[in-house]
Amino acid sequence: MDCNEARPLLDANADHELTPPQSRDVQRHIESCEACRRESEMVRAMKGAVRSANYYRAPDELRAKIMAALPPTELAAPQGAVRDSEMRPEPRARQRKGWFDWVRLPQLPQLPKGGGFGPLAGEGAGGAMSGGGWHTGAAWRGGLALAFCALVAAGIAVTLHRTGEPMPLVDELVASHVRAQLSGHDIDVVSTDQHTVKPWFNGKLDYAPPVEDLSASGFPLAGGRLDYVGHRRVAVLTYRHAKHVIDVYVFPEDDRAAGKPGAAIVQDGYAVARWRDEGMMWWAITDAAPESLTALQAALTARLHGGEPGAPYSGS
What we know:
The protein has helices spanning 3-6, 10-14, 20-32, 34-52, 60-69, 72-75, 84-87, 138-163, 167-183, 194-200, 290-304, and strands at residues 189-190, 221-229, 232-241, 244-252, 262-267, 270-277, 280-286. By secondary structure, it is an alpha+beta fold. Strands 1-2-3-4-7-6-5 form a 7-stranded antiparallel beta sheet, sandwiched between helices. A hairpin with a 2-residue loop joins strand 2 (221-229) and strand 3 (232-241). The protein is globular. This is Anti-sigma factor. Residues 3-37 form the Putative zinc-finger domain. Residues 1-26 are annotated as: Disordered.
């Protein structure tokens, strides 16, 4: 795959819309092409920023204030006059509702020749606004639209700074978990023996993920697999609990793709837990109750530090 083939697929790849073979081909090209890698990172960053931004709808009071600030003589068209916008059919693209409908103001009548507002209007060539006044409400709406865009951009920056949530990584992990379940090939090495699963990763990764069997705590090890997340290969340990599958993604804690520990969240109906331990960053994902991940984390932490496993977790 070359750049001409890969570039049109970068958006779909960021949205996890490609088939597994297409996704692998695009990822291989991204790894070998610096320009496409930068383009892919820009696409993902933009999608993450938009997804993380808070939705804000301007209150009705703002429209009322704008309307009240306009001179009363400019709000009403002359009696019997037909607005220019009523005579011309609106272009199709303008008929669709957009974000700026709340700032759509009435068409203002054309100002006297010479332009300007208030006492400056019609002062002639020497007037402060002569010859270049605003003749319609388009400039008003344009100015308000620009101001609104600036507010949205500032809101995105503030939101990202405040939350610090690696939402693109969460989306990618959940998508990886779902794809594995749908493919029917969610395990590369099928074994309940940690001494079989752990050496299977040798030579396939640039780190050695800890592997523990948590059967005594109600989370039997089912096996492991390799996956590609955050522009790198990662180890995935698969555990079972009742009729649910729990995928545990293991990153080196100092890897830039590993993310940071934080509170458990629910994304698209899947519980996601994350924590740091033993030099690794752990991400656990399941369609079971979030409490099951809390119990798995406690059991895994106890085993990693040589403690005794607690009572088997019996929740759903």
